[in-house]
Amino acid sequence: MRLFGQCFRDAGASSRVDHVLLRSGHFAPLTTPAMRAFGFAGWSGSGKTTLIEQVIPKLVARGLAVSLIKHAHHEFDIDRPGKDSFRHRAAGCDEVLVTSTWRWALMRELRGEPELSLGEALTRLSPCDLVLVEGFKAARLPKLEIRRTELGKPWLHPDDPHILAIASDAKPPASAGVRPWFHLDACDEIATFIAAHARAVPWDD
User: Average pLDDT for residues 54-83, to the nearest whole number?
Assistant: First the structure.
């Protein structure tokens, strides 16, 4: 029987349950292990992207299927002016899907609709073991604070109880309490911590 359409989630299940719309019009449940998420918090220029880039191979090497959600500025665009897909969106398409033998990408124009919450963004991903989240500072998910002294920015952990550990180029202050501290290049140890403390999804907050 051919699968048709999009997966839908039963948020009340203990494991992740996708309901796949069949061509017949009926829904077929598919049960998969729960997906988990872990976030990264830090000021711009603190090295979040670099650290995430270095940690991902460590997690993949452990057999985990890893995906990522990044919150961007409202004017971001992965498309380029002049390309067919850009022109089609500009002409009025709400969604444009571009596909090839190597990858596919779906772009949706919100046109005044509210942006996705983290919970909504997570439902858009295909099944995986671990989702890394960059941005969504207010989200109540376990996070690693990343900080560079040279930026001169305040620490984030005093105002965010969901920051469980810190990666920085200098020892954190007493306000960090018993939170583990990692050097910015301690990628193996950070990967181990993330794998152990990621939170199962979906959730409502």
Answer: 85
